[in-house]
Amino acid sequence: MNGFASHDLDEAAFGEKDSLTGVLRTFDAFPKTKPTYTRRTSTGGYTTILLVLFSAFLTFSEFRRWYAGAETQQFSVEKGVSQTLQINLDAVIAMRCQDIHINIQDASGDRILAGDMLKRDPTMWATWVKPGKVHHSRNKGDRRKREDMEEEDTHVAHVLGEVRKNRRKFKKSPRIGRQEPDSCRVFGSLEGNKVQGDFHITARGHGYVEFGEHLSHEAFNFSHLINELSFGPLYPTLLNPLDHTLATTPDHFNKFQYYLSIVPTIYTRTFTSLIPLNSTTHSPLASANTILTNQYAVTSQSHPVPEQSIPGIFFKFDIEPILLTIMESRGGFLALCVRLVNVVSGILVGGGWCYQLWGWGRENWGKGARARGLSGGEGMLHGRKAESDGGEE
Fold it and tell me: Which of 68, 162, 267, 305 has the most CB atoms less than 10 A away?
């Protein structure tokens, strides 16, 4: 009727059918192109593979970041009431065990005879001081290595992993055989008041009024190795600022002083911002994903003192009234899916636009090149250029 049938053409291929499907097609916001009107190229195939690989890489990176979680640090006023503080000490002093005196005195006036609560093992100094396993407090190169190692113990995942495999026990002292011991290992845990205090290691008969023989000054040697000094529950594999620290002196009368600032710290991995509290003390509760401990910063000094002064090793600690919460949290799975959809769709859409712009530019460049070729052939007739006005007469 309209002449299409005489040319073997089907009108249905060009018009819409009068049916429900045809009516719905009127509202289609995503117009389609018939496959017969499209052309596939190898360049488009390479571009598609590149976009798919890039999308897969970003998807994997986004998933890995979500799985690892994000850490946040928050300072707040410490909640609850905690009256005691556990002190963990493991140190080797280059003096005999019967020649040293240890005690704690806090700001409340309580004096704790730590020497009666800590264990003492006679040992050899050379057994503990081994190169590569201890760092000297005055060595700047060792200090930089220590800072890198301590940085690992500030991350929640590393701390929780170390805590799970901890035995919470001090290592046994090495055997010395029949050798005469020249040093003393002092180790153990004790409870003190959670207030400012001083921890002293002095010589027998010096520093405090006590009964007993006065120790000769020639026996003084307060060179020491600190294997462990921490506050709170004992986690031997976590590295504290003074762990494995060596300090030596050639003087008999020498005073080592350490000033510690203790900050209560919570490491937690949770999907919410709420940490369970003790109903009695209103303090945070420890769990498989939450540990309660204390960090500290330390400054130290060492100098010889006259014979009228008291030599020894002195730790002065102060507890900050703040609480540091280091939390590792992971976003919801639905939020991850939304981010992945945004990443993939953005890459595919942006890549499609870039490919179309590149094709458009290449097509226009080809048209310009063809136009310049035609303009160079003006005045040609039967394949020969017209003679110019300045030609031969």
Answer: 267
